Amino acid sequence: PQLLRLIGTPDCPILIDLRIDEDFEEDPRLIPQSFRHSFRNITSLVPKLKSSRVVVSCHKGKKISQGVVAILRDHGVHVESLEGGFNAWSKADGPLVPADKIPARNEEGRTVWVTRQRPKVDRLACPWLIRRFIDRNAQFLYVAPSEVLDVAEKFDAIPFDVEDVFWSHRDEKCTFDTMVEEFNLETEPLKRLATIVRGADTNRHDLAPESAGLLAASLGLSRMYLSLIHI
């Protein structure tokens, strides 16, 4: 319950999934924002974890988690283990993201996304969702609309909020809706937020009273932070 309250907030710890391949293959989903790493070379992460709060989880929260916690604490890392491990989280119906929906990470360990420059509503909300629930270190490339797909190909980036790609509008729903659904993040707060974003992005302010305010804030940010390419 304590971790569940932190998921999606700025105070969420770094989450490391330590499950061995056999256990992961039985249930290839991840706690939001977590990433997999082998317990056998956990010390390779120490430089990145030194100043952060960390929570590790294995299959049942026993020997692997306990061993890793001991090792990381010996290196000065503030770390805890998830009681009961992944099994306990799953049985408690905590949100779980299908691993096959998360893009491969680059050499820096980051997912890379690309969309149209001068972002508004949807192209601001989607990065927020990704950073808070999928990859806290995700990189976002904002480029000329005509170049999005070519940049995606050249830089191994995932295009979003453009036509004819997977991560985009579907019928009356916007890209934020698509991400909430595909990442299996359909909690009540995020579904409510998706309605607000959809209302602002598709000019349907009747969907939620907050939609008009979100659109206004988005337009204001767009005016305040002009891309150098347009100066």
Structure description:
Helix 4 (63-74) links the parallel strand 4 and strand 5. The protein has helices at 2-6, 21-26, 46-49, 63-74, 85-91, 121-133, 148-154, 175-182, 188-201, 211-224; strands spanning 14-17, 29-30, 35-36, 53-57, 78-81, 97-98, 112-116, 139-143, 158-159. The chain is an alpha/beta fold. The longest helix has 14 residues, at 188-201. Helix 6 packs parallel to helix 8 (175-182) and helix 9 crosses helix 10 (211-224). Strands 3-1-4-5 form a 4-stranded parallel beta sheet, with helices on one face. The protein has a 3-stranded parallel beta sheet with strand order 8-7-9, with helices on one face. It contains 10 helices and 9 strands. It is 39% helix and 13% strand.
What's the helix and strand layout?
Blueprint (H helix, E strand, L loop, with lengths): L1 H5 L7 E4 L3 H6 L2 E2 L4 E2 L9 H4 L3 E5 L5 H12 L3 E4 L3 H7 L5 E2 L13 E5 L4 H13 L5 E5 L4 H7 L3 E2 L15 H8 L5 H14 L9 H14 L7
Parallel strand pairs: 1-3, 1-4, 4-5, 7-8, 7-9
Antiparallel strand pairs: 2-6
